[in-house]
Amino acid sequence: MEMNGFTLLIGSAVIFLIAYVVYGSWLAKQWGIDPKRKTPAETQKDGIDYLPTKPAVLLGHHFSSIAGAGPIVGPITAAVFGWVPVTLWIIVGSVFFGGVHDYGSLVASLRHKGKSIGQIIEANIGERAKILFAIFAWITLLVVIAAFANIVAATFVANPSAGTSSLLFILLAVAFGLLVYRTGISLFLGTVLGLIGMAAAFYIGHIFPIVLSKDMWLLIMMGYIFVASIAPVWILLQPRDYLNSFLLYLMIIAAFLGICFYQPTMEISPFVGFDLGHGQWLFPVLFVTVACGAISGFHSLVSSGTSSKQLDNEKNAKLIGYGSMLIEGLLAICAIISVAYVAADKLPALLKAGGPVNAFSQGTATFMTALGLDFNLSKEFVALTISAFALTTLDTATRLGRFIFQELVTRPVESRNGGKEQPIAAFLGNRYVATAITIALAWYMSVGSYLTIWPIFGTANQMLAALSLLAIAAWLRKENRKTFMVTIPMYFMFAVTFCSLGQLIYANLGKNWLIVGISAGQAVLSAALFIEAYRVFSNDKGQIPSNLKAQNQE
């Protein structure tokens, strides 16, 4: 079956648009979105984490943070099963799984004063469940940082100009933040100056590329995310994500138009089979490999960890939560088209040279030549764009990891200390120390190949999605609202991830004890949390136990 990439892209875009208008609006009605209700960004404004932000800026931050390299790496890696199952899962997953998950996480956090998913679990399931989730989420974030740092470093080695321009973008973001938030110039003028600066940075990176080893790039990135995760959001996180979003939008538009004009055909097989051997079964491997292109637990941490603290009006929650996931789904469709076209004779060499991002850059740059653009410059631009917003995922993941680690270690001591923290807890909970511990462990895991980390990332990420859906369901049940739009994806993701964890443990026994240990730990934590939730769900009339009522009244 031969398929034109243009037809596939247009068809997917139409489906996503209809889903946004129809299903997204239905979800907003079911969840009681109220534009008149004040958001946590307004009621708890502190200028550091809570800050009312214009929708265009927040969309840039949120989308750049959740996208990263996931919608590129996942679909390309999963293409071994054929382009049809990958495409179907991207579409169905984005609309009914990932979109619901992201949107629901954002709304649930808004209803809990901008609190994280872990704190939402505490309010609706219990303190013990919150601790279990926090441990799981922190471990998952370590894997996220390790996986994306590894991928970005490999991209910078293959495309030194992209690494050079990315370093310049960091300095540019700081300048943008100071201009807009401290000197008072308009967002429009700041944006114009920022875009000019980005063009200059791209040119400088092209002319004077810095060539470094992969290990050196990893160290540089670890230093950057340390600073970015502790700095106020207005000086680096928001400006960088906002400016990078223009790169991403431009790349998506260029890829979209390139596919329209180039008219590529899908050269790889539409469907290879259910069992590829060596433990590669379509279920569950496909659903944990595509990851961010369809649903990602990391997104719930972004929605509830940073975006809910910056949303200026509830009416914009659909755009930020549901809309961003659909845009990411469209990017994943572009990725599968690019790899399906170049796979016939170039894909193995491209993957070996620079990983999935390099393969995507090659395919997309080829399509962009139909617009009269130079191939080499286009490839540099695409590699720069992917690595730029992968870095935004890194700094956001590190900030979230710091939040969760601090929550875990700074629990008050009720006896002898009058509710004050113990000295060791205060030390570990210091934002500098918490950040350093998180980064050090992630750096240790990042050394090696992304192929070693990605299976752990995919499974941990999708289990986190299942647990986040569980938290949303618990909140909706407590509010006496419908839960089926959340529980159906939740049960499916639990089935996928428990099967995948079992496969990972069995395949790595006696070979890679790190994967075995992490997978076994995740399985135990997830099972324990599921049991805690079942205890609450099975209570008569959906009422939460008296001990939780007392907690909520406090």
TrEMBL record:
**Cross-referenced Pfam families:** CstA
Q: Could you list the residue ranges forming a coiled coil in this record? A: none
Tell me where in this chain the CstA N-terminal domain is found. 4-344, 350-499
Please tell me whether the keyword Glycosyltransferase is annotated for this protein.
no
Query: Which one GO biological process term can you cite for this protein?
Result: cellular response to starvation
Q: Which family does it belong to?
A: Belongs to the peptide transporter carbon starvation (CstA) (TC 2.A.114) family.
Please report the name of this protein according to its UniProt entry.
Answer: Carbon starvation protein CstA
Q: Which organism is it from?
A: Parasutterella excrementihominis YIT 11859
